[in-house]
Design goal:
The protein is mainly beta and 119 residues long. The chain is 0% helix and 17% strand.
């Protein structure tokens, strides 16, 4: 799995058309997938790239090159819900409340030395 400049793509989704079976490419752009028959078709998708449908046609090795999509994302909204026990966390988590935001506009300039971060 590579982009059109030859760089490997990690995280590309491959799904056997008409099924829930699939795989995701690794850090080297490689994937391993067992297909039910030789007439299987792979749906290949990755954000920012054109999706492809690739017939397996009895091949045991498939080299896929993805082209950049001509469509652009204008907005990205991240929404998180749920809860996790603190002992199960493997990443940074913070809570932001309305009092943490600056109310109104500020004309004061900040330098790195004057900004204090709270954990």
């Amino acid at each position: 799995m590579k982009d059109d400049s030859g760089a490997p793509l990690a995280g590309v989704t491959l799904q056997i058309k008409g099924t829930t079976s699939g795989a995701v490419s690794d850090g080297d752009g490689k994937f391993k997938l067992t297909v039910p028959n030789e007439s299987a078709v792979l749906n290949v998708t990755f954000i920012g790239y054109e999706p492809q449908e690739i017939p397996v046609a009895g091949k045991t090795e498939i080299n896929i090159v993805l082209a950049l999509s001509k469509k652009t994302l204008t907005d990205v909204v991240v929404v998180g819900y749920g809860s996790v026990a603190k002992r199960n966390l493997t990443s940074a988590v913070t809570t932001v409340q309305s009092k943490d935001f600056i109310q109104g506009a500020s004309t004061r300039r900040y330098s790195k030395s004057t900004v204090k971060w709270r954990a």
